[in-house]
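Sample intake sheet
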Amino acid sequence: MELNEIKKRLYKSKPKASFVKATKSGLMYVVSLSGSEDGTMGAWINVYFLIPLLEIGEATFEPLVESQLLIRYMIVDENKSSPYTEQDLAVDIW
């Protein structure tokens, strides 16, 4: 699934991203999307969001956040079964 298609799906379906963990790099959230728009077939894709600590400021982050609000922090993992590490996800995405 291409990046623009993922963004469209996040805006259209408005799924909630779940808080995963806080690291020295930032706050991490994740949402899973089906490979197909109707959710019936295709591989699932984990979309991670890593919000740098420097950008948090005085904002309040909840356990569930609308994923379209986090799009600028997006990291995509198309292999749901592969374990991720902090080093894998702490990349410069700008």
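Comment: The mean pLDDT is 78. The CA atoms of residues 28 and 56 lie 12 Å apart.
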